[in-house]
Design goal:
alpha/beta
Length: 115
């Protein structure tokens, strides 16, 4: 299994394999047709409070990572994480899609590491 990361604003490619959006909010300016998604696991995105705290600068990336990892280990996100794990086991290639401008410090990076 290979897990790649990609901004949703980049053109889809055959090499993406199964395309999974992992943002809680739908990305601005992207139509569902253009996104070419196989799955939208919005529940895997950080909670709104955590997302807002990180984007406003109240949390460093390391603090965000710690809190997001806690979220992934509990509640609603844990159940959806099991769905993602099942997809990842069944597919040769998956691409986790995200809308964040920062390609190195976002929830998809943490999620890939978590898997």
């Amino acid at each position: 299994m290979s897990i790649k990361l990609k901004r949703i604003y980049e053109e889809p490619a055959k090499s993406d394999g199964t395309r999974i959006l992992v943002d809680r909010l739908w990305p601005r300016g992207i139509s569902k047709e253009k996104a070419k998604l196989d799955h939208w696991l919005k529940e895997l995105g950080p909670t709104n409070d955590l997302r807002k705290s990180f984007h406003s600068g109240d949390l460093s990336f390391n603090q965000f990572k710690e809190k997001y990892t806690e979220e992934l280990n509990s509640g609603e996100q844990r159940e959806v994480l099991e769905i993602l794990k099942k997809i990842a086991k069944e597919e040769v290639e998956i691409t986790l899609l995200f809308a964040a401008k920062d390609e190195n410090e976002n929830q998809a990076v943490i999620l890939k590491e978590f898997l």
